[in-house]
Amino acid sequence: MNSVILTNAVRFVVLLLLQVLLLNNINFLGYINPYLYVLFIILFPFSGSQTLLIFLSFLLGWGVDIFEDSGGINAAACLVAAFIRPVLLRFSFGVSYDYQTIKFSSTQPGARISYVVILVLVHHFVLFLLEFFNFAHFLLLLKKTFFSALFTIILVFLTLALFKRRSR
Amino acid sequence: MQQIINFLIRNKNNILFLLLLTFSLFLTIQSHSYQKSKFISSANFLSGGIYSWTSNINSYFNLEQYNLRLLEENERLRTRLATYEDTLAIEPFTDSSAVGASYIFRASEVINNNYAKVDNYLTLKTGARDGIRRDMGVITSKGIVGIVENVSPNYSTVISILNSNSRINAQLKKSNHFGTLVWNGEDPNVVQLTDVPSIAPLAEGDTIITGGRSLIFPKGIPIGAVKDFTLDQSESYYQISIQLFNDMTNIGYVYIIENTEQEEIRNLQNISRDE
């Protein structure tokens, strides 16, 4: 149990620093940045407390906001992502989630992809909606959401592949 | 009573979610309203410290370019000094605008620079201890950068001209027609000038400078060159795109301008308005 807490604490700090010091400065093609820190919400233990997840997601998002001077847009986006996570888990993994016996690493690849893609898309959409704060640039908003989400999803799966535990 | 507590415990996730969401939306709305001090900004000691630590490493990669920029500026200033000394030798006169120069320039280092978002900010390595105050102008040797917004003892944040809330008075160099400098959130090297009357003589490549109507920037600081322009729907004002002289994606070092008479002028204006 202790190792779970330690892993998540380290993951929290490392993802926050990685985001604000490195990933926010990529600006690929001028405006595309990956938001890899959602990986914390994706990988948070499925059996963990939902209340704790909501609170930690808020802290993570707000931490990024303080560095970026962006008010509370990342905090709000993380909160929404954390809030809908149980619904997404049930949608993607079905009944096995209800028995709380699964781990992220032991799920079907297809289900895993749908879970990550939907979570990232929701997070990014809320994030950019609040950043633009009006519907006048709706097309630009969708464009930014789509390309940034694509970048994030690729990075999420690369990171997962990199830190994969060897199977016995 | 028991039921209320039970209700709270049962819905603790939803309640916590709504509370925190309200708080973050409050922060977001506050960040979108112009000219309001932020509750917390990147000028605090923790994020400011981390940013200055990483910028210490990053600045080495751009040293050559910064040196080149300084050389260019020195060259320009020396040329001006030479002509100034020439005229001084021939005909001693006092330029009325130079008496008791009311602007103080301070150099500072940029430790964080955003340009890919809709509302961008910079963080500087100087703060209240170095005499930086709110509403001071920030420029480089090539053009304007923004206006100081939040100040902590050692750091300050600057609202960039690449921010949808930024409004800066600007004018044409060749005539005195002025307008408002805004940004539409798209290209970090192109800003927009609105409210220039259609009677103004305008051509591509014209230089745009700061106007003397704001208390923040002195008149005549270069901004950029006219890239293209169209008339708005009523055909009475121009919509002008401006190519910035500054490369906003690579700034490095800046000057902060203090107008020592800002307070006096503002008080005077307030008195006149009250009467």
Secondary-structure map:
The complex is a heterodimer of chains A (168) and B (275).
Chain A: H1 2-21, H2 39-43, H3 50-68, H4 73-93, H5 95-98, H6 109-132, H7 138-162
Chain B: H1 2-10, H2 12-32, H3 45-58, H4 63-90, E1 103-113, E2 119-124, E3 137-139, E4 144-151, E5 156-163, E6 168-172, E7 178-182, E8 190-197, E9 207-210, E10 222-231, E11 237-244, E12 253-259, H5 262-274
Summarize this structure as a short list of keywords or feature phrases.
heterodimer, A: about 170 residues, mainly alpha, globular, B: about 280 residues, alpha+beta, Thrombin, subunit H, 6-stranded antiparallel barrel, 5 helices
Question: Would you mind describing this structure in some detail?
Answer:
- The complex is a heterodimer of chains A (168) and B (275).
- Chain A is mainly alpha-helical and 168 residues long.
- Chain A has one domain (2-162).
- Chain A contains seven helices and no strands.
- Chain A has helices at residues 2-21, 39-43, 50-68, 73-93, 95-98, 109-132, 138-162.
- Chain B is of the alpha+beta class and 275 residues long.
- Chain B has a single domain (46-259), classed as Thrombin, subunit H (Beta Barrel), CATH 2.40.10.
- Chain B is 31% helix and 30% strand.
- In chain B, β7 (178-182) and β8 (190-197) form a beta hairpin.
- The termini of chain B are far apart.
- Chains A and B meet through α1, α3, α4 and α6 of A and α2, α3 and β2 of B.
